[in-house]
Write a structure and sequence with these properties.
With 269 residues, the chain is mainly beta. It contains three helices and 14 strands. The longest helix is centred in the first third of the chain and has 8 residues. The N and C termini lie far apart (36 Å).
């Protein structure tokens, strides 16, 4: 998993799994025109330094003739981060009006590497057929196809669906397991609920939040590895306010800087 992927996935892994492979769900969390921005920080010599920003926008559109939502996530490191690690990621995702994924693309410049991941979804026959493609930094290509009885997600389209989850009745330690796809294949992830906290964003506002931890199965280690802890508003919007990220070369944090076009009343305090 790349460093930028840690951040992106943690912005997106709030999910409720059902038994249908397509998993239709009513959207009550966001509207077309929403724009969220974040400040990124890295722990350098015991000091937290701002090293970049990220933004997520959502709009109503059409995909192959059907109504859809288009999401765009952009992460950019500044000169301070470039000394350690170059990060220039652009992600694009489409879901239909019942929040089932249709298409995903990630173009990532990370260090001296540039890769492209793509995922296409087909729900013919009541199952989820996932076609995956990766262009590696050396311009070679990987292609694979998987069919699942479960809902399958990617690191961007999971976010639009996941914000509509219902945590009612969750107790501390509650976990959810789900498959995630990218250009290189599929893996299994776990989301663990760790209670509630009040968190302050970079917009000088505090929010009542749900605290969650994301882990991913590591085949080489034969166990799950924790990648991030994140805090989402305890309201119908479920907007990530703060994200604590564990990287191979240190620790990072992301704090919400602004929210525009948010659909529901906020858990702001």
């Amino acid at each position: 998993m790349t460093k930028a992927k840690y951040l992106i996935i943690t912005l997106m892994m709030l999910v409720s799994i059902t038994t249908s492979a397509q998993c239709p769900l009513e959207n009550t969390a966001f509207s077309s025109g929403e724009f969220l921005s974040y400040n990124l920080y890295f722990n350098w010599k015991f000091i937290w330094v701002k090293v970049g920003n990220a933004s997520l926008s959502t709009s109503a559109t059409r995909y192959k003739g059907q109504q859809a939502y288009r999401s765009s996530l952009i992460t950019r490191g500044n000169g301070k981060l470039d000394k350690f690690f170059i990060m220039r990621d652009t992600l694009l995702g489409y879901v239909n009006n019942t929040l089932s994924p249709l298409y995903f693309r990630k173009g990532a410049e990370e260090g001296d590497r540039y890769t492209v991941d793509e995922v296409w979804y087909d729900y013919t026959g009541g199952k989820c057929k996932v076609k995956m493609h990766r262009q590696k930094h050396d311009l070679t290509h990987e292609n694979s196809t998987k069919t699942s009885e479960q809902c399958v997600y990617d690191m961007l389209n999971i976010f639009t669906r996941a914000r509509n989850f219902d945590p009612t009745g969750w107790q501390k330690g509650h976990t959810i397991k789900f498959p995630v796809a990218d250009g290189g294949g599929m893996t299994t992830a776990i989301l663990r609920y760790d209670g509630k906290e009040k968190v302050k964003g970079d917009n000088d506002k505090s929010y009542n939040c749900l605290k969650l931890t994301y882990s991913e199965w590591k085949e080489s280690k034969n166990k799950y590895r924790e990648y991030a802890t994140f805090f989402v508003t305890d309201d119908k919007n479920h907007v990530p306010v703060r994200i604590d990220i564990t990287l191979n070369f240190g620790k990072a944090k992301a704090f919400v800087a602004s929210m525009k076009g948010v659909r529901n009343p906020s858990a702001e305090k």
